[in-house]
Amino acid sequence: MKTTTLTAIILLTTACTTQTTHIYKPDGNKQCEPATSTLANSTTQLTSAGIEVLTSNCATHTGMAVMTVCGAPTLGIHLHEINASDIQKAKDLGYEEANNLINHEQGTGYEITNCP
Fold first, then answer.
1. What is the DSSP letter of 101?
2. Quick one: which of 34, 35, 88, 107 could link to 63 by a disulfide (CB 3.0–4.6 Å)?
3. What is the pTM of this model?
4. Which phi and psi angles does 42 have, rounded to 5°?
5. Which structural domain, as residue segments, surrounds residue 76?
6. What one-character-per-residue DSSP string does 24-40 give?
7. Residue 105 and residue 90: Cα distance in Å, rounded?
8. pLDDT tens digits, one per residue of 70-101
């Protein structure tokens, strides 16, 4: 009985401490042009690589200036929550940790937006 209870407690503790993190990748869309990259495509790229995607959102990199001209990149990003154990797999696909976008001194970060 004690062994069963101890095992159950260990399993519950392990399940509750699964670490997650947010990753992002620029969406690749250009100003004045129809969106060419979708959040669904980004999610599929991750899941095809064996990465479980917990949540997905379109977002914008904030606190940055971009030149306003047709054909120039936007500040749009695809933001995903994944298990922290999959960070290296995601980096191999060109994603970065979203925490890298946040710099309070420079006033940069990101905010969730509607998808184009």
1. G
2. 107
3. 0.82
4. -65, -45
5. 19-113
6. EEE---BTTS-----HH
7. 27
8. 999 999 999 999 999 999 999 999 999 999 99
